[in-house]
Amino acid sequence: MQYQDRTEAGRALAKALIGYKGQDCVVYALPRGGVPVAFEVARALSAPLDLILVRKIGVPQQPELALGAVADGDTPEIVMNEDVAAVLRPSDAMMASAVAREMREIARRRELYLSGRKPVPAADRIAILVDDGLATGATARAALRAIRRQKPRRLILAVPVAPVSTVEDIKFEADEITCPQALEEFRAVGHFYRDFHQIEDAEVVQLLAQTRDRSPPVASKVE
User: How far apart (Å, rounded) are the C-alpha atoms in residues 44 and 55?
Assistant: First the structure.
């Protein structure tokens, strides 16, 4: 089954998670593609929406292949795709350079998207991490570990579509995984959307602004 777009996918996730409405939840999106999906979940649950800034560490000369991922934080959370790393055997210098490059992009996005706004805390709350789909799961794994450091009461990963193998590999990183389409046969996330246009920075900023307009600000401590 194909979703029309990320909005429809978000509504499907919201329906699956509606039992959490009225509980102390916070929804975290993986930008950029996860933001329109998470927006629908946060709206349905009347929950605040925030971002977890994660960047894929691509393979040199083949950047779409994930060597790993790095998540923002006081101490960046780095996750490796061990099977890819075992083949490529990246040097420490190559990894340091790649992580530094992606952290610069994270810093740029933090300033652009959040403009100094403090993160919404996950401590003692139900934290729901949302993306538009999983492939290798490297970025989601890094994000889950970054959220877990904040000690949420419950940690949920919610994605519209993913390979069964990736769901199995990542299931121990979350307390619960919600995935309406976990499939044995899987090509790419975009294959399951009729409209899978690239989300631009302006759309992320607009959706976050809409969320802030309808939600009271939450004072918090940086993770």
Answer: 27
